[in-house]
Amino acid sequence: MRKVLIVGGGSAGWMTAALLGKLFHGIYEIELVESEAIGTIGVGEATIPAIKKYNELLDLDENSFMRMTQGTFKLGIQFVDWWKKGESYIHGFGVIGQDWEWLRCHHYWLQANARGSARDLADYSINTAASLANKFMRARVDMSESPIGHIAHAFHFDASLYARFLRGFAEDRGVRRTEGKVTSVEMADNGNIAAIHLEGDRRIEADLFVDCTGFRGLLIEGALQTGYEDWSHWLPCDRAIAVPCARTEPLTPYTRSTARDGGWQWRIPLQHRTGNGHVFASRFVDEAEAERQLLDSLDGEQLAEPNRLRFQTGKRRKMWNRNCVAIGLSAGFLEPLESTSLHLIQAAAIRLVKLFPDLHFDQATIDEFNRQSDFEWERTRDFIILHYWATEREDSELWRHCRSMELPATLQRKIDLWRAHGRIFREDDELFAEESWIQVLIGQGIMPRAWDPLVAIKSDAEIDEFLGNIASTIDRCVQVMPAHGDYIQAVCRAEAA
User: Does position 302 have pLDDT exceeding 90, yes or no?
Assistant: First the structure.
């Protein structure tokens, strides 16, 4: 292997380039081709805590990273009107309470809640309690016995600034950027990609090609005709409209997702503005009405014209085909309901490093990459489907459709196990932890018929004391935490904010 060519920029291209440049500088030639004439989607502005692993691989200074991307911190996602209109809950990152002997905390909560002696589930997690109070601080590694030692955070940031930041990082580590628009893809006799051709009669060869060309899938689909697995029968949304508005106070440490009649609306707070968007199903609501709903609900002055997107939920049948790996939107699309877009990019880039090929392009290596990718995408898909299906809303055609749809067998099995005794088990390296499933299931009204029988080992009084100590300790921790906006002002305020 001599040369890796990344075709396409944006978050996918530059996240991949930054990682390969950091790890392979001086070993392989790495080039990225992009065209200023082709815009990027640029709306993937919310993340999950796994992105910190990527930042650590790059040795990024978090405060500097936040300043350069106008970033804010994220403790979770608030879901409004998903279960019922007027109801909301927060899917917070991190732990729920603490384990007690054999059992997870939520089993004791289920028993106490059934007796009417438990507080809201949000009171037993430092992330959710702090979110509701608009408080934030990073976890204190010297306080492992306190909830403050278990705060889990991710980020909101400006996607365009993030790509620009990563471009500079990658170029400093030897990645060469070439401006140009691809006109054709040249195939080798063995069926691999041999080169791409750019405007101006330019030809670029490589050994390994990384397709970051977005929805077009110029290499993985246009040249290799890999095929696409359509998931729109489970996830019917196929349109999105994004628009920024002026920042408003307070600066919330969470993303907000509000269910609408034909889809859902996101709200992402940044230091210099608020990102907003409406993801919707065109078969249930027309674009003009979806745009009106979005613009009428902005909580600040509109700062730009709406950006309109079309997509088909699903994935490539193979994300690695021959000598081409698809990363980002060229690999597939899952709507950003749980902020997984950037994670799926970083996961693919890290997976490529772990399974980096030589010139033989061994099929066993390619198959393992695709197996791991399929597992991650399918389990992430299941988690997103759960939000749509677990609803009691009947006020619009979309929600009636979602309530009645048949679920993937992998998701149905999880729900059946949960309904029996409140048990959830994380499978292999699936993305979302047990705490995530628990919060969404309870938050959207899917309560188990019973809790783990071992709860009966403890008396009601012991359980109430156990839960009361957790909630009161978290109350005291939240009281001493600074406001989210004050924390940013103190440690990572962007100069232009």
Answer: yes
**Side chain identity at residue 348, one-letter code:** A
- Which SS3 state, helix, strand or coil, does residue 434 take? helix
d(CA 424, CA 408): 17
Residue corresponding to tokens 């299931």: 441
Say which residues have a Cβ less than 8 Å from residue 383's Cβ, sequence separation at least 6: 338, 431, 432, 436, 437, 440
Give the pLDDT mean for 285-307. Answer: 96
Environment class of 313 (CB within 10 Å of its CB; exposed 0-12, middle 13-18, buried 19+) = buried
Question: At residue 3, what are phi and psi to the nearest 5 degrees?
Answer: -140, 135
Segment 141-166, tens digit of pLDDT: 899 889 999 999 999 999 889 989 99
- Whether the Cβ atoms of residue 310 and residue 367 lie closer than 8 Å to each other: no
Beta-bridge mates of residue 263: 260, 280
Task: Supply 121's token pair.
Answer: 């589930």
C-alpha–C-alpha distance, residues 95 and 302, integer Å: 37
Within 10 angstroms of residue 319's Cβ, the number of other Cβ atoms is 27
Scored b (16 or more CB within 10 A) or e, 275-288 reads bbbbbbbeebbeee
pLDDT over 60 at 183, yes or no: yes
Neighbouring-strand partners of residue 302: 245
Are 211 and 7 spatial neighbours (Cβ–Cβ below 8 Å)? Answer: yes
Q: pLDDT tens, 359-412?
A: 999 999 999 999 999 999 999 999 999 999 999 999 999 999 999 999 999 999
The total number of residues shown for the chain amounts to: 497
Residue 336 has pLDDT above 70, yes or no: yes
Decide: pTM greater than 0.90.
yes
Beta strands in 181-225 (DSSP E): 182-187, 193-198, 202-205, 208-211
